[in-house]
Amino acid sequence: MIATMVAGCAASGADSPARPAAGRDDGAVASATATSAAPPTPSATPDGSQAPPASRASASSKVEAVLARMSLEEKVGQLFMPVVYGAAPDTASGENSARFGADTPAKAVAKYRPGGVILFPWAGNVKNVRQLVSLTNGLQKASPKIPLLIGADQENGRVSRLAPLVTTMPGASVIGSTGDPSLARKAAEVTGSELRVLGINLDFAPVADVNINPRNPVIGPRAYGSDPAKVSRMVAAAVKGFHDAGTATAAKHFPGHGDTDVDSHTGLPVIRHSLSQWRKLDAPPFAAAIGAKTDVVMSAHVVMPKLDPSGDPSTLSKPILTGLLRDRLGFDGVVSTDALDMAGVRKKYGDAQVPVRAILAGVDLLLMPPDFTKAYDAVLAAVKSGKITRARLDQSVRRLLTLKEARGLLERAPVADPAKAEKTLRSAEHRRVARLIESRAR
């Protein structure tokens, strides 16, 4: 049985009550992030947030046209990627009713118009090839104005949400042991192509953590290794492999989850790396992923007090997500939270505060809020009150739409073909790649 409680792939959700704490100034920036090595500061947007670098400064006219005709409620919906329950678009479920006030996956999507959904076996989403293709096609049909990002945690190895439908591919640590980045690229291309034929367009992979703590209970073999240079090469190659297949990627878990002995599903890890240590140990694979044009970077629910002394987890930290990820590393793509039902992000603030604070910190995509309606209503209210400015909201929606345009998902979603999926999944060619990697592992 594959473990379900692993970072970046939260399972059934944390049931413990959140404990609200006193607020703080979300605009505070840790002094530790300011060094002479920082890249040039991008120009500020009207709300004071940072504009994307000039390399991708202006979104396409198609993106701007879509953005201009969206309602406020549609824009807020784009920020969310929830779990929907059931094997078919019209499967009625009490879980859907409780979370969305709509009993089927299709009705939930039509009601809130989220930016995407994430699929899990434990939510009843993954049964067989034809069922899954029918589900993804039906979800897209329920979102006719703007196609969905449909995501999955298919890292391979220990985290394989689509097993046994897809080719059994070695995990990151095995691939890393080969020392050959071309094999990381081949493995990612195989996985990405199999996801695409199932109607899944975003893989929450690769893991960019450097696993330097042998007691790490949550990363371990999910990482390519303990050497930042080797991990960087593997991560960049994997991003390119997914892109070869036309699948979007999410490098995770920023600013690094490799040096902890606490699982962020059940607690709040504290990593005491200095800025210098972070730059040497944790940052290189994320910089490599950004250099390879990863679509998404996922945050970690970890505290790094020497990078942000507030005590907030990185998911809610402006010094980390904006100061380090945006300004220092120059990432102008989509920033996603790790699952918001994990204990690590719920310990300090309530479920209504967390999504608002995440957006103020620099997040664009809110993954798996434990109480969807509470989270949605809180973000909508924050925009209406001006706590989240309209310009800040548009900034995130623009990034999400730009990602969709880059992957061919802005105007019309591809329709998955079950016959093609059955032919592609676990093909002889794909199984040969898996065997090649196993033969080269050390």
Structure in words:
This protein is of the alpha/beta class. 40% of the residues lie in helices and 7% in strands. The chain is built from 16 helices and ten strands. The chain has helices at 61-68, 72-78, 94-100, 105-112, 129-141, 172-178, 181-198, 228-244, 275-291, 318-328, 343-346, 353-361, 372-385, 390-406, 418-424, 428-440; strands at residues 80-81, 116-118, 149-152, 154-156, 159-160, 202-203, 248-254, 296-299, 334-336, 366-367. The strands form three sheets. It has a six-stranded parallel β-sheet with strand order 2-3-6-7-8-9. Strands 1-10 form a two-stranded parallel sheet. It has a two-stranded antiparallel sheet with strand order 4-5. Strand 7, helix 9 (275-291) and strand 8 form a beta-alpha-beta unit. Helix 8 packs parallel to helix 9 (275-291). The longest helix has 18 residues, at 181-198. Residues 1-58 have low confidence and may be disordered.
